[in-house]
């Protein structure tokens, strides 16, 4: 009689950390959601495709209220992947998992769009022919230091200096750094797949275009300490040296 030997394949688990936005709702929740709506109106698609976590430590919500909040965010196209600040027994069925771990990261604020002031003239002239609107841009003529965050969803960001370790540059368009990049650079945050990242000297911790990113240990060592650029090729983030 022949015997059948079955070899069971072992499961391998690896711990990884991922970049995510953390929302910190506060009471009254209706007013907080109104603020979310205003942000989405100014920066459509900003959170599309990005992982989002909820820190409910300051909200004091009951389990049914947590479920209602998660559903309200889902209606706005914001998918919550995890929740902080509640006890495990408050995480009812159907809710995202409760997250445990250290808290960190810098708070970022999406700036209000700039407003133009119009001064009326005594005799208005005929309206000029429509012209193609130039893309908006933000120029920073000083270094961005560790712990600082720059968020500009309306267009490109140009830094005439270096970006320190732990600093963040987040742009709706492309990012141009005329110095050393040691922190995080995230371009195309408004959903622009043609956005690029350029830096004079790359020593960065993370590069991202939209939801696609690479951390320092995933980037070839040969690209460090030299000029580099990053762009999207389909759904693949490409990084190369610039000569």
Which descriptors apply to this entry?
five-stranded mixed beta sheet, alpha/beta, six-stranded mixed beta sheet, elongated, 14 strands, 243 residues
How would you describe this structure to a colleague?
- 11% of the residues lie in helices and 28% in strands.
- With 243 residues, the chain is α/β, with parallel strands linked by helices.
- The strands form three sheets. Strands 4-6-8-10-13-14 form a six-stranded mixed beta sheet, with no helix packed on it.
- The longest helix is centred in the first third of the chain and has 14 residues.
- It is elongated.
- The N and C termini lie far apart (70 Å).
Please give the alpha-carbon distance between the first and last residues: 70 Å
Helical/strand content category: alpha/beta
Question: What's the SSE pattern?
Answer: EHEHEEEEEEEEEEEE
Average predicted confidence as pLDDT: 78
How many alpha or pi helices? 2
Biggest pleated-sheet summary: 6 strands, mixed
Detail the poorly predicted runs.
Answer: 102-124
Strand arrangement across the biggest beta sheet: 4-6-8-10-13-14
Radius of gyration: 22 Å
Write the layout of secondary structure elements.
Elements: E1 21-23, H1 29-42, E2 52-55, H2 63-75, E3 80-84, E4 136-140, E5 149-152, E6 155-159, E7 168-171, E8 175-181, E9 184-187, E10 197-202, E11 206-209, E12 212-215, E13 228-233, E14 236-241
Parallel strand pairs: 1-2, 2-3, 4-6, 5-7, 6-8, 7-9, 8-10, 9-11
Antiparallel strand pairs: 10-13, 11-12, 13-14
